[in-house]
Amino acid sequence: MQLFRFANPDFLYLLLLLPVMFILWILNVIRKKRALEKLGDPGLVNRLLPGYSKIRPALKFIFQLIALVAVIIILARPQFGSKLEEVKKQGVEVIIALDVSNSMLAEDIQPDRLTRAKQALVRLIDNLDNDKIGLIVFAGDAYTQIPITTDYISAKMFLSAINPGMVPKQGTAIGSAIDLGIRSFSPGDGKSKAMIIITDGENHEDDPVSGASEASKTGIVIHTIGIGSTDGVPVPVMINGKRDYLKDADGNTVITKLDEDILKKIAVSSGGNYVRASNSSIGLDEVFGEIKKMKKQEMESTMYTEYNDQFQIFVVISLFFLLLEFIVMDRKNKKLENIKLFHFKL
């Protein structure tokens, strides 16, 4: 499968001009219509202007727009990859397990725990080079959001869509996230593998410490980042468009607080570090600094190294519709009335 790309994608922003041009054209049509109405009865005006056509100007405008789109695509330089090469890089594999339970909506970390963690992850991904990254989300169970990859653009795209509503079961199953993480790394021994767990640590589902010990046996180092307040805060929710706080089955307001003890035990069991997040720093830079000290592994990846321009078809399209726009006149031509270029009357 060939890889498609635009060599100059910034030119595609010119497509934003199309709706502006369309609105201006509509306004011009309305202006002309009002000007004709001022001349008198519409039937009389039509008899006085036998060559006037309502459809032809619209057709010419459509042809111009199509030609303009083709020119913009030409400027953006559409290309297909033509040569594949195996590229060897040195890096580490990192899987991030992000807690998306309702408690991550608490606002003791501004703007809230989950949003702040996502913002920090985007900055981390922007600083990655040769490393592979994977993303797991978990609440009452764990789910793979992004398999281990070097596609940082897709990673950020999926990350932006993460929210508590994407998991069917609430809770905080850290052990399930660790188990899924163990199975998500590339197979093989001697690889540099690290896992970062970002959570408030309120584990209600399983035994994550034993899972961390199993991960350590396979060479996986787990770092934990505790996000939230140890004092406890309510969890804001929107109910019928109004702000309220999450309540339990008895109607009591749910208070969520950071459980540092469990996160410290997970980190110690796997040879990793525990970092507590704050409003000024989530702690990802500190954790990733430790990961960078790990022995780099050689990772092979396939990439396109040569691309061929494929703009020729758009040149033909542009010239074709410009020619049509030139041929179709604004007014009816008596000499060409019998030539049916289109199936409807102009």
- Radius of gyration based on Cα positions: 30 Å
The largest beta-sheet arranges its strands as 5-4-3-6-7-12
Task: Give the helices and strands as they follow along the chain.
Answer: EHHHEEHEEHHEHEEEEEHEHEH
Number of helices: 10
State the share of residues found in helices, binned by percent: 25-40%
Strand content: 15-25%
Q: What's the end-to-end separation, in Å?
A: 45 Å
The poorly predicted ranges are: none
Give descriptors for this structure.
346 residues, 38% helix, three-stranded antiparallel β-sheet, 10 helices, alpha/beta
Short description:
With 346 residues, this protein is of the alpha/beta class. It has ten helices and 13 strands. The protein has helices spanning 17-37, 42-48, 55-76, 113-126, 152-160, 174-184, 208-217, 260-270, 284-292, 312-327, and strands at 4-6, 78-91, 93-99, 132-138, 142-149, 193-199, 220-226, 233-234, 236-239, 242-245, 255-256, 274-276, 297-309.
